[in-house]
Amino acid sequence: MKRPPVLMRLRFHNGDRKFGLWLPLFLLIPLALVVLIILSPLIIIAIVVLWPSGWGKLALLVLQAAWGLLCSMPGLKVDVRNPNQCVYISVI
Amino acid sequence: MTENQKKILEMLSKNKISIDDAYRLLNVIDSGEGEPGSTVKAEPGGKSMPKYLRVTVVPNPEHKNADNVDRVNVRVPMSLIRAGIKLTSLIPSDAMDKVSDTLRDKGIDFDVRSVKSEDLEELIEALGDMEIDVESGKGERVKVFVE
After folding, report:
1. Is the overall model pTM greater than 0.90, yes or no?
2. Quick one: DSSP state of residue B49?
3. DSSP A89
4. pLDDT per position as a tens digit, B55-79
């Protein structure tokens, strides 16, 4: 079973300016789930209202695909650098 | 937590290995390849399914411009590519037409709708044989491969 990412590491470097961040997604995802649960009645009403037009089904599929995309992200690594600049993104 | 996982975390805490190495080793153990007495999982025909698509750009040390070349190291999980291709099914048909028209204008005669999920696994399996290695005149060496 796929799991959502637990950590995201960001590092940017542009000349003298440096910025690095460890993003604890394992703390943010439960918060996002709580928000989603709180908003779920509104989401369900919106989906039911939009169902006849076809947009409701699409919204449901988009939510499913977004979760699938999030769970596919562990292992993603982007590292672009030259002597003066650096962009590093790693999802663990 | 298994004994092997504990050992890896101990090595990480003592800075004997990097975070990336620890992640890689834990993944190997998760997939059962690092268990004592277990064998490496392989697909029929001796080929294992690729896990990552890698794109690297490194300077050619023999070239005079080698110091000015950007270094790129991108690792994309195959599962992310699968999820991305599945997302194309959510694109409205009129937007798909525009994408296909734009591709055709650029000389690429490819219909995005023709990518079916059943073809996807075959496509990803075939990627295992792919390796692109290009050396440009600007001192760059571009490699695209799967691992």
Report:
1. no
2. P
3. E
4. 999 888 777 777 778 899 999 998 8
Q: Which residues contact B83 (CB under 8 A, 6 or more apart)?
A: A65, A68, A69, A72
Do residues A70 and A26 touch, judged by C-beta distance below 8 A?
no
Bridge partners, residue A82, by sequence: none
Interface predicted TM-score of the whole assembly (ipTM), two decimals: 0.81
Sign for the CA dihedral angle at B116, B118, B124, B126 comes to negative
| CA dist., res. B145 & res. A91, Å (int) | 20
* Chain A residues whose C-beta sits inside 8 Å of any chain B C-beta: 2, 58, 61-62, 65, 68-69, 71-83, 90, 92
Q: What is the pLDDT of residues B83-135, one digit of tens each?
A: 888 787 787 778 888 888 898 898 888 777 777 777 777 777 787 778 888 88
Q: Which residues pair with B141 in a beta bridge?
A: B58, B135
For residue B103, give how far its alpha carbon lies from the nearest alpha carbon of chain A (Å): 25
Neighbours of A73 (CB within 10 A): 19
Residue A22: pLDDT over 60:
yes
Q: Which chain B residues are Cβ-neighbours of A62 within 8 angstroms?
A: 90
**Across the interface, do A76 and B80 touch by the CB < 8 Å criterion?**
yes
- For chain B, what percent of residues have pLDDT higher than 70? 82
Per the listing, tokens 């525009």 go with B98
User: Are the C-beta atoms of residues B74 and B55 closer than 8 Å to each other?
Assistant: yes
